[in-house]
Design goal:
alpha+beta; Arc Repressor Mutant, subunit A; D-Maltodextrin-Binding Protein, domain 2; 4-stranded antiparallel β-sheet; rod-shaped
Length: 298
């Protein structure tokens, strides 16, 4: 049905309900001549007279009464559908699939799971922890969380954190009797904890920059992990130097369990974003999830 046809049917129903062209026109906020034109077009399209008009009254014909009765049912169902959608906006429900790397899952998702489920019990939430950074469209996810530098193109992105910085750290027990690094090249004199990218990827080369200078260091050490929590625990146990995102190690620095160095060389980079495919209308469950994460971030 074209938009003009729907408008004509609404106009016809308003006339029957009001029993007057003038009152129906005022209700629809159009002029009486425009309303009359709509009815003429409707009657021409259906091929029968729908209204009996006199100088003092207007009433439906037999055909008009039949149409009005059917329209009442149809318009009622449409109103119910709109009300149902509006209720879903206020009470989100349905399934929601989120793809997130482990480091972001622990920071943004784990702390809110219980509260979110209590707030939105009708949302079936699935969290897939994935350090391989799958394409959320191909994987049929509703949204994901990524570092800003790893966002997929043509996505709507919502910032969850400020810019981040890398941090080189080691336990005081490890540094005892050793020279604290003042230049990235000094790391060659230390046992470093290597990080292997998930999925059998290569070993991460530690990246440093200062002003216009930048370099990558292939550090040496007898321990390699593919999980940042293991790297943190190893550093706390004095296994060597770790290179991690600053917020992961800051609590331990403040407690004196880790010492930080090479900060002038440690680069900053875009923080975490929650992102989803570009859509004109965001599903109510996803809209609720985004608002919830943003309200609890940090």
């Amino acid at each position: 049905m074209r938009g003009s046809e729907f408008t004509e049917l609404k106009a016809f129903a308003a006339i029957v309900e009001e029993g007057s062209f003038v009152r129906a026109a005022a209700r629809l906020r159009i002029s009486p001549p425009a309303l009359s034109q709509s009815i003429r077009q409707l009657e021409a399209r259906v091929g029968v007279r729908l209204l009996n008009r006199t100088t003092r009254s207007v009433s439906p014909t037999v055909a008009g009464e039949t149409l009005f009765t059917r329209l009442g049912v149809a318009f009622g169902e449409l109103d119910d559908a709109v009300a149902e959608v509006q209720a879903a906006r206020d009470n989100p429900a349905g399934s929601l699939r989120i793809n997130v790397p482990r480091v972001a899952a622990m920071r943004f998702i784990a702390p809110i799971l219980g509260d979110f489920q209590r707030a939105y019990p009708d949302v079936a939430l699935t969290i897939i922890v994935d350090d391989l950074l799958a394409n959320i469209v191909e994987g049929r996810f509703d949204a994901g969380i990524r570092l800003g530098e790893r966002l997929e193109k043509d996505m709507v992105a919502v910032k969850l954190s400020d810019d981040l910085q890398m941090a080189a750290v080691a336990a005081p027990a490890y540094l005892k009797g050793r020279a604290v690094p003042h230049h990235p090249q000094d790391l060659h004199q230390h046992r470093c904890i290597n990080f292997q990218w998930p999925g059998g990827g290569g070993i991460y080369r530690w990246e440093f920059s200062r002003g216009k200078r930048s370099l990558e260091i292939a550090v040496k050490g007898s321990l390699t992990v593919n999980d940042t929590e293991l790297m943190l625990n190893a550093a706390l146990d004095g296994a060597g130097v770790a290179y991690m995102i600053d917020y992961q190690v800051q609590p331990w620095i403040e407690r004196g369990r880790l010492a930080r160095f090479l900060e002038p060389w440690s680069p900053r980079f875009p923080g975490f974003y929650l992102y989803h495919p570009s859509r004109r209308l965001v599903p109510p469950a996803l809209r609720a999830f985004i608002a919830f994460v943003r309200s609890r971030r940090g």
